[in-house]
Amino acid sequence: MKFLASPEIWFVCGSQHLYGPGPLKQVAANAQAVAAGLAKSKKLPLKVVYKSLLTTPDEITNLMIAANSDAKCGGLILWMHTFSPSKMWIRGLNILNKPFLHLHTQFNRDLPWGTIDMDFMNLNQAAHGDREAGFIHTRMRLGRKVVVGHWSDPEVHARIAAWQRAVRAWHDWQGARFVRFGDNMRQVAVTEGDKVSAEMKLGFAVNTHGVGDLVAKVSDIGIDSQAVNQLCAEYEELYTVAKPLRKGGKRHEELRYSARLELGIGAFLEEGDYKGFTDTFEDLHGLRQLPGMATQRLMGAGYGFGGEGDWKTSALVRAMKVMGAGLPGGTSFMEDYTYHLSPKGHQVLGAHMLEICPSIARGKASVEVHPLGIGGKEDPVRMVFDAPAGQALNASLVDLGNRFRLIINEVKAVNPPKLPKLPVARAVWECKPDFKTACAAWIHAGGAHHTGYSYAVTTEMLEDFATMAGLETVVIDATTTLPTLKQNLRNNEVYYHLSGGFRA
Ligand code: MN
Fold first, then answer.
1. How far is the CA of 323 from the centre of ligand 1 (A)?
2. What is the mean pLDDT of residues 259-272?
3. What is the pLDDT of residues 371-382, one digit of tens each?
4. Which of 175, 292, 350, 503 has the least CB density, counted as fewest CB within 10 Å?
């Protein structure tokens, strides 16, 4: 995957000097064993590194300064093996700008009931030491994840793994660059937003290039170049390419143009260190067609994408791809396109004009060329496929003027029926808790028609991510009821109005 970094997670243990040097040595050894145990877990995508045992305000502050300034540090796991009076942590936590997870665990899994004495009790104090830590985190209004259970527990590893995936995506967004070719689709509201606010709060920059800059890049790719030959051969190897598009076919030249689009956009992104892009069918001057397969293939390589200038969804798709890296199931740009409103069960047909990522293809995609119907350009080449059945979710990031809101809907994808006349990639799903509740909830929450759609990313990862990013989260799942959801939205208006202050 393009530009995928693997930051480290620092494991930090808190204690104090009350117990003397002997117990502190034991505490440090135990903390190292816990960190090593986590580092060995195959579930955790990021490396856990034991950093230090902290016992004084200066040690804590210096560690936080080091974490902030080390580009390799993605986040911290904090654990209070013994009591660590938490006023010692105020100065350090005040300046920490990396996400942290509070692991509420204990070195010993089982209590030795027959031999337990006060020495044992004093050495294994997380039960109250972590509560003292939790108080100061709450007192300071710090967003964090709290994971509870023995450090060998697979369920604990799963919770930490979800958080690490969110850390990786958050790390990826910091300093990330997204490019927009042209502006938004005219008059569309939900794809607008405050890019200054996004950069202040979310860490990524969005800037535009006239489509002419891209046209120049595409023109640099020679029509008969070896790169185009190779890519077309690759298409024929990987996909079922329609006969007229194949080498020697009467529309092969159109496949070659699609390859030039892929190489041209790819080169533009590579040279600009961009992690994602947007385009719009309303601004294609100098391009013969809206990029279809080119965009699909670049999303497949890990780039974020949003149609019609939708930079928020492009950034979100990229973040979701990073979260899901290495897991089964892909992630794509998606749009709620049309509904099946049968009394036997309501379903959503998700698709886009062209740009659905092949990471969610079930089986071999076919490569076809058809008219687009809007935009008045030449027929775009596109990959056509079905997305598989399975648990999935849609997520949408919207700008409410004083904050960004992340809306998540868990869905059950089903195998699409035969769609012989639909020339685009598609997914069919059923919403949780049910179609009517989910759609009403989504609309009340202001969720967009564009989403990041994923089989790999979970609600837990997105909620952890939202905590790091300070995003409001609205989850629509099997437990959602409309009255509660609407009340939560009203409550959130007050909370975010007060907490955002004037820096929105
Ligand atoms: Mn769209």
1. 23
2. 98
3. 988 777 899 999
4. 503
